[in-house]
Amino acid sequence: MSSDPLVIFTPSGKRGHFPAGTPILTAARQLGVDLDSVCGGRGICSKCQITPSYGEFSKHGVTVQDDALSEWNAVEQRYQDKRGLIAGRRLGCQATVQGDIVIDVPPESQVHKQVVRKRAEARDIVLNPSTKLYYVEVAEPDMHDPSGDLERLRMALKDQWEIDNVTVDLHILQKMQPILRKGGWKVTVALHSGDDENPNRIMQIWPGYYEGTVYGLAVDLGSTTIAAHLCDLATGEVVASSGVMNPQIRFGEDLMSRVSYSMMNDSGADEMTTTVREGMNGLFSQVASEAEIDKQLIVDVVFVCNPVMHHLFLGIDPFELGQAPFALATSDEVRLRASDLGLNIHPSAHVYLLPCIAGHVGADAAAVALSEAPDKSDDLVLIVDVGTNAEILLGNKEKVLACSSPTGPAFEGAQISSGQRAAPGAIERVEIDPVTKAPRFKVIGSDLWSDDPDFEAAIATTGVTGICGSGIIEMVAEMRIHGIVDAPGLIGTAAQTGSQHVFADGRTNSYLVYDGTAQGGPKITVTNRDIREIQMAKAALYSGARLLMDKFGVDKVDRVVLAGAFGAHISTKHAMVLGMIPDCPLDKVTSAGNAAGTGARIALLNTQARVEIEQTVRDIHKIETAIEPRFQEHFVNASAIPNAVEPFPILNSIVTLPSETFNTGSDSGEGGGRRRRKRT
Predict the structure, then answer these.
(1) 555 contacts: CB under 8 Å, gap ≥ 6
(2) What is the pLDDT of residues 213-248, one digit of tens each?
(3) Alpha-carbon separation of residue 252 from 11, 27, 247, 414 (angstroms)
(4) Where is this region: Disordered (predicted)?
(5) Cis (ω within 30 of 0) for the bond into 642?
(6) Would you list the DSSP string of 277-341?
(7) SS3 helix, strand, coil % of the chain, rounded to 5?
(8) 313, 341 in Cβ contact below 8 A?
């Protein structure tokens, strides 16, 4: 084993050992990490900015010391003086490896930018926002009536709109009088409607009749990505949507890694809270810029997130979520001000976080329940929000059950040898020829298949860079359909599979997808370890769904809904071949797209929906997979492709899966099969 320091890059997950003194940019290039540089490492362009992380990372098995990188140098100081660097950033061409280090490559330093696919789905929503505009005519001050301007504004709202109990923040009061006089005592007021605990609140005042609008944000704060949808509160229209990678990913790709980081490092939770809020503010600036609006017009925000993100965003240490009984600080809805969270929008903007269902079934699952309404369904529906931590709902009008299942980051392309996040150049669709066993594929950014004569020209700017989550699912399923992978998950030899794309790779075999080395590109393969990662992820997903079916007392469901940005890009046929979801007619397996984001928009645009989901969440019954004995049994069975015991009759009527197994138990066969232990 190398004694050189270990360098780990996030979000790609790529790692390698490098001698002390190696520039981070050099390490990134040798590992194929997507780190930009225009000036060739001379410290001029600043495209190679990186963020080092320090402390104990149990997920990666390293402890990063304060001196893991070389000291800040004159080149970095010169750039800092001229243009400024974000706190904590270094230049990858200047910082050199001195010890084990975890390096995050921020989105702006990546050549191939992440494609955040959490789009806003088209949806009819009853419009009843929390903030509305009211035009009023205010009585002018009178020597015989000593009341103040605010009191007369309140009176106008009561007389003309029957709105009582109105309050105002200091920053509005400070500018109210000149606005009233400029408008000739006619003004438009943005008023946030109160509730049983809070009065109506004046958010903004404009002189005369204001023809504009105010805005709200529906935010899906995921462990991997953050998506924000900017909505016109007067019309409900989504005027802009944008997304970014969650910058917390450098502390751990999965949730429990972040919980572990907070446990192992004294200021770990605070550090992650600061990081995600900074990322949130960057996203808000981005979406406001896209819509060409003033951020001060954003007066309402609704957040949905899983419990760990919920706590870290609020500045609550997630320690208790890392151990049984996984107690939340609060499972109720949370109402705050933007200023409480350091959000750079309207200073009095209201923030609403949907309630969590239980310890590992969060506000994002509540938002999915609001969007898809399983409690109002006549048939039995299974809703799976596919992500790093899958959240699963099963129910109908009778009852709704919920659980979470730790699928890990494999479905996001992480922990896969040629895996990557969804970005231009990533393989996202795959087909294998049944005769030649050769693959063809599509990449993000092009509609052409790789065997099209114009394919190379179409991808000239991006190249073929790796395999994203939807691509690896189709790849493994296609390999199973065409006899390259057997049911236990072993890749056969070239002779066993009849494919010249299979090659010996140590003690097992791998499958060649694409070789771009002649053009300076990557060699993209699927290894047996990759197959195992997908088996573990899909087994966790299926086991959670099957456990809920046990609790419901059923062996089949009427329909399946795949939620989440990732779920929207999964081929239902390939998902069933893998055994990710229960056997079901393919026309009964649908995608809800970003259902959590849709639920957030519903809660943003209809305050009555907030009341409804608060009640619905109280009625959902949570199943804790960690204490259910049958979960492990289902997991073992679901590790096979598609399953070791479940019959899958509907799938078998659509496709015939080969029955051969490649583990012959012999030591021969070009690396095929697992070695039999010698008896002693």
Answers:
(1) 549
(2) 999 999 999 887 888 999 999 889 999 998 888 888
(3) 9, 20, 10, 11
(4) 661-680
(5) yes
(6) HHHHHHHHHHHHHHHT--GGGEEEEEEEE-HHHHHHHHT--GGGGGSTT---S--S-EEEEGGGG
(7) 35, 25, 45
(8) yes
At residue 421 the predicted structure's pLDDT band, cuts being 50, 70 and 90, is: confident
Q: How many residues does the chain have?
A: 680
**Averaged confidence pLDDT in the chain:** 88
Q: Note the pLDDT of residue 570.
A: 82
How do residues 85-125 score in pLDDT, each as one tens digit?
888 899 999 999 999 999 988 877 876 555 555 555 555 67
80: amino acid identity, one letter: Q
Look at the alpha carbons of 239, 245, 247, 251 in this order and tell me if their dihedral is positive or negative: positive
Distances (CA, A) of 178 to 207, 210, 309, 384: 9, 16, 43, 54
Phi, psi of 52 (to 5 degrees): -75, 150
Distance separating alpha carbons of residues 532 and 626, to the nearest angstrom: 22
Name the DSSP letter for residue 513: E
Tokens found for residue 508: 């097992």
What is the arrangement of strands in the sheet containing 559-563, beginning at the earlier edge strand?
Answer: 589-593, 559-563, 381-385, 390-395, 400-405, 621-622
Residue 327 CA to residue 324 CA, distance in Å, equals 8
Cβ atoms within 10 A of the Cβ of 184, count? 12
The continuous run of DSSP H or E covering 266 comes out as none
Cis ω before 434 (30° cut-off from 0): no
For 385-417, letters b (16+ CB in 10 Å) and e give: bbbbbbbbbbbbeeebbbbbbbbbbbbbbbbbb
User: What is the Cα–Cα distance from 116 to 245, expressed in whole angstroms?
Assistant: 8
Residue with tokens 């199973």: 480
Residue 449 Cα distances to 223, 324, 419, 429, angstroms: 32, 48, 19, 9
Give pLDDT tens digits for 117-174: 555 555 567 888 999 999 999 999 887 777 899 999 999 999 999 999 999 999 999 9
What distance in Å separates the CA atoms of residue 649 and residue 251, rounded to the nearest whole number?
Answer: 43
The rounded distance, in Å, linking the Cα atoms of 141 and 65 is 67
Tokens 């609001």 identify what position? 370
Backbone conformation region of residue 242, classed left if phi is above 0, alpha if psi is from -120 to 50, else beta? beta
